[in-house]
Amino acid sequence: MKIAIVILNWNGKQLLEKFLPSIIAYSTIPSVEIVVADNDSTDDSVEFVSNNYPNISIVQNKKNGGYAKGYNDALEHINADIFALVNSDIEVTPNWLDPIIAIFENEPETTIIQPKILDFKNKSKFEYAGAGGGFIDRFGYPFCRGRVFNELETDTGQFNDISEIFWASGACFFIRKNAFNELNGFDENYFAHQEEIDLCWRAQNIGKTIKYVGTSTVYHIGGATLQELSPRKTFLNFRNSLFSLIKNVPANSLFPILFFRLVLDGVAGMKFLIELRPIHTFSIIKAHFSFYSSFLKMFKQRKLSNQKKQYYHTTSIVWNYFIQSKKTFKDI
């Protein structure tokens, strides 16, 4: 089983200098190839890799198409059974690949896997982007085991298990090549943020299984609390979440779900205003107008979904967290 560890890079020389050594040191299995997929960088990161790591393959994309198009373009040129899509700000640990490879070899129905993702800056805490595996509520708001909104749990071994999840984090995302191709890769309309949730949802709509493997650990320097979000990230998160709803929610509940979701987004916009962050309120408004203008195009992407399987873990994570004060996954 050949595995390609593919690191998407855009002007990330400093990150590659810092994090490539751990990936090289702890990924020495003969069947593993390490690839840097460059998204048309303008710094000297490509030269840095070619000069210092001649054994690492480089795929150069013609433009910066973000996470979604960047990986779609690069993976067309990579031959492997398993793609391991790893952010350039990920530090891996000894034997991190072993339990993941074992699952893929022994469970042919398992298509996508995520390891445990802890915070590089505070290694006792789960990291915002993925933590112990992802879920969504009925209205499409994402959360994780180990992370609900801005609440990050301390890792005490509570998620050292292997279990099914709804979505795997794009920060460290393993997928079978044949499934990636069957699903036509990431939706490039997303550009970045939540495209992995859509891909996981589409995978489950055709009967695929997604797992979290807590016996494999990586550390991620990325992620952010809501207060640290850029307006651009706020825009993409709100718009792309709506895209996923229109593409994947079963037909009999789609429009009621969209209506209530738009109301909840309005509440989020008011919250930003009260917090004197009107630029984020404006980003939500922009996200909605972008969603409306793309409605028909995204609606046409709908496929027959597996309506027998409930897609959401809880009805409203907003209600759980802000009204019921449930701050940890086990309380939801």
Describe the structure.
The protein is globular and about 55 Å long. Helices cover 37% and strands 21% of the residues. The protein has 332 residues and is of the alpha/beta class. The strands form three sheets. Strands 1, 2, 3, 4, 5, 6, 7, 12, 13 and 14 form a ten-stranded mixed beta sheet that branches. It has a two-stranded antiparallel sheet with strand order 8-9. It has a two-stranded antiparallel ribbon with strand order 10-11. The longest helix is centred in the last third of the chain and has 21 residues. It folds into two domains: 222 residues, Alpha-Beta Complex (Spore Coat Polysaccharide Biosynthesis Protein SpsA, Chain A), CATH 3.90.550; 83 residues, no CATH class.
Secondary structure topology:
Layout: E1 3-9, H1 13-25, E2 32-38, H2 45-52, E3 57-60, H3 66-75, E4 82-86, E5 90-92, H4 98-106, E6 110-119, E7 122-126, E8 134-136, E9 142-144, E10 147-148, E11 151-152, E12 162-164, E13 172-176, H5 177-182, H6 195-205, E14 209-220, H7 231-248, H8 254-274, H9 278-293, H10 295-299, H11 317-323
Parallel strand pairs: 1-2, 1-4, 2-3, 6-14
Antiparallel strand pairs: 4-13, 5-14, 6-7, 6-13, 8-9, 10-11, 12-14
Largest sheet data: 10 strands, mixed
Q: Report the CATH superfamily of the largest domain.
A: Spore Coat Polysaccharide Biosynthesis Protein SpsA, Chain A
Topology pattern, helix = H, strand = E: EHEHEHEEHEEEEEEEEHHEHHHHH
Level-1 CATH class name of the largest domain: Alpha Beta
Number of domains: 2
What value does the average pLDDT take?
A: 95
Strands, count:
14
Indicate the low-confidence ranges by residue numbers.
Answer: none
